[in-house]
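Researcher: Here's my situation. A collaborator sent me these components and asked whether they could plausibly form a single complex. I don't have experimental data yet, so a predicted model of the whole assembly would be a useful starting point for our discussion.
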Amino acid sequence: MLLCASLALLAACGQESAQPAAAAIADPADPALARLYAQTCKACHADPGTGAPTAGDRAAWAPRLAQGMPALIEHTVRGFKGMPPLGACMDCSEKEFEALIRYMAGEPGQRR
Amino acid sequence: MKRRDFLASSLGLAASALLPACDDRGASRMPQAPEAATGPDGARRLPWQNWSGYQHCLPAGRVAPASLDELVDVVRKAPGPIRPVGAGHSFSPLVPTDGTIVSLRNFEGLLARDATAMTATLGAGTRLGNLGEPLATAGQALFNMPDVDQQALAGAMATATHGTGQKLGAMHAYLTALTLVTPRGEVIECSRERRREVFDAARVSLGALGVVTQVTLRNAPTHVLKRRVWLEPVDTLLERFDELAARHYSFEMYLIPFCSRAVGITIDPTTDPPRPRGAEQDNDAVMDMKRVRDWTAWWPALRRRLMDAATEDFEPEEAVDVWYRMFPSNRAVRFNEMEYHLPREALLPTVRKVLELVESRHPEIFFPIEVRVVKGDDAWLSPFAGHETSGSIAVHHYHREDPLPYFAGVEPLYHPLGGRPHWGKMHTLAAGELAALYPRWRDFRRVRRELDPQGRMLSPYLKGLLGA
């Protein structure tokens, strides 16, 4: 299905994917959070090619954080664009979602 | 006029005309997950939804046992029905429950390996996307992988998830042993030599027998593969399908609705030097196909002309890399899916009918039709059981739009052929119809009753399929 090179002539690339942004970030300081991140979010949020905002890319996360944490958690729980419901963490609590979001957004204190 | 200018002006004309802006394509009919509720402990109970958002529930509990003892305790005592969940990547209602959802994310990773027997034991909650590196480091490779790697091993096995290849079985075909925790708290280790009936039932189990905690797979030595992607006219690719399927390690075909070209993908062992795949472009391509649909649904001839023009210059792509980077693709555009497995000889005539149906009656469809082949096996509820090779047709529908009219149109094409639905994908078959398709259906139900006499694993959906 690799038609984008040709179909890109027709329109800008899809809304459900985004321009990649490379970023490197240390693992979460909390080992439990680090494990959770590795098991769930990392598959998409560490790969710029997926279109998901990359963990540690503060510029990409800033406008998202500006929406407020309740909105981000609601997006996480219900799924948003390419992100699946519950962010693929089937047992996460809202507190864990918030910690994961803050870590990926590059907030101080969340990284090792 | 240059091609790009022609396309731009054509689309501009189309966009400025009428366009089906008032048609939400069933979006307003889509299921909505319930609102979060406050539980007895004062915390919010969050709804669960599958990957596409189509299936949902508001479970009493969502838990991730940290150990085997904790898991045993959960399956024995937690509010039922108990439903194990991996990645939630199934489109059929296998998970929804008012009781307890059990995540297997703490049962993950490479647990043991046998270099002589070329087997590896893995936690059943391991995501397919996370097992490639450790397996390759251990010198092993899966024989085959599905098109996506987000699923957990247990879910992939339970639903008979598969890749493509005439000589390649589905994921569960390579199982040599597994460990099952039953609702009575038994921990059963089974294989062809040990508790054979449980093994035959549990390889493809719909998660109805208990919770699988680890699996042992027969693997190949790690290796490098070459992946080739090309486009060619639909008719010639269909004519060459059998030859390509026979000649290549792995072969699949995508038919693009309202386009005169189809996509072929082959994967073969190679000794060529590495040449990575590069950035994933399929998601953007799918959304561009949607855009073309939105702008030209009222004028199919223009749609075909645009799609043909857009695919005219596609250069074949080749990539060479370690096995686990060659099979799966990133699928960020969510969808719902129906897939049926057919007798091999019925595959191509049926593919033609599906394409004809789409192009004559379903202009809303823009996702390609996926055509694959799978080697048969002997698990009791394997949809490939009894076939030397099965032919599979998968149809997809954008996750925000109602898939049912399309799926209801396609599904009757499969019934006269004895088609068996993918357990993790949408279908309408009920217990009686499925029983007629599976010679060991009654045996499976008997083993299920023996392992779970109280039906703690049976959600309302599963009770309808497998209950009394």
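Model: Some features of this prediction you could bring to your collaborator: Residues 25-104 of chain A form a domain with the Cytochrome Bc1 Complex; Chain D, domain 2 fold (CATH 1.10.760.10). The longest helix of chain A spans residues 94-104.
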